[in-house]
Amino acid sequence: MLASEFSAQHWLSQTQASGSTLGLPELLWYQRYTKVLDLSPKMAIQSKLAGTYLAKSKGRGMEFDEVRHYQNGDDVRTIDWRVTARTGKVHTKLFREEKERPVFIFTDLSSNMHFGSTLLFKSVQAAHLAALIAWHVKKRGDKLGGIVFSQQQQRELKPQSRSLGVLRYFHALTEIHNTHNNKANHVANSSGQNSITFTTALAQLRRLVHPGSLVYILSDFSQFNTDALRHIRAIRQHNEVTCCAINDPLELSIPASSSGLAAVSDGLHSGIVELSNKQLQQRYELQQQTNQQQLQQQLLLAGCKWLNITAAEPILSQLETRWHG
User: How many Cβ atoms from other residues are within 10 Å of residue 291's Cβ?
Assistant: First the structure.
């Protein structure tokens, strides 16, 4: 069955997902759907470790690249005797080195991510996307690491291979997500002391990432600021970075059928407004679109890839459309 053939309700039943809590079965479910992603490297691999990706540098390795005339200093063991005999001139084989590329997933599970108006909390959608990436990493034979954080907890996961890296990441996702959902814990930590922020978590990711890695940043970017951009730029200098913006429809526009009153503030003014006000709805939607466009533009200029993900639809149908539509 194609991913796009799942209705939202059928998909929830298949994954055993509630939409607000997070369980291991729904993360394990994605193992069979890794084909909707393509994690092939788009830049030179800088890792010094042997692996399954071809570096642009020439060297001894498992993958044949080309034949050229023999030059002083070439290894005589690489001489291509067939071409040499046919042309009468000594030729040598060149090989393209295979190198490993670790993959790091940065998953934001802070308070602002624990919201959803339609299908899933943004935090749950981020975890589902992380699971899909993780299974694809395992299938490709890469090592998986990253950062999972909320205001109260942070897990730094150094790269590990095979199922160990995947299951360790899933354990961090479920533990931090569901601990945040525990009301008693949330109240106990509501003072904000030693609070972990988007920026401080990015700083830790910057220290963790190896040059030549693939980095996925999964967040709603609601805490994005100039310091966060500085860290992302530094990470991007030697790595591929994809920023996955997780959003909810209610954050992007006020439904036309809305009614009632709401407290609003633009930082300078605050007050009570009527949600059914058409002008208010239009201004709100325009402001949100502008904010999203500015964020996207900043990250694209930093050299990152950009992927919009809504929490209102199953992740598979969205990615299947992007890569295969």
Answer: 15
Helix (H, G, I), strand (E, B) or coil at 233: helix
* Residues 228, 169 contacting (CB under 8 angstroms): no
Assess contact for 107 and 218: CB atoms under 8 A: yes
Mark whether 187 and 315 lie in a shared domain: yes
Which of left, alpha, beta for 169 (phi over 0: left; psi -120 to 50: alpha)?
Answer: alpha
Residues 208 and 69 placed together within one structural domain of the fold: no
Chain segment 133-150, per-residue pLDDT in tens: 999 999 888 999 999 999
Domain interval for residue 202? 3-44+101-253+307-324
Task: Looking at the structure, tell me whether residues 65 and 192 fall in a common domain.
Answer: no
pTM: 0.76
Q: Are 245 and 306 in contact (CB under 8 A)?
A: yes
What is the residue type of 123? Answer: S
Neighbours of 304 (CB within 10 A): 21
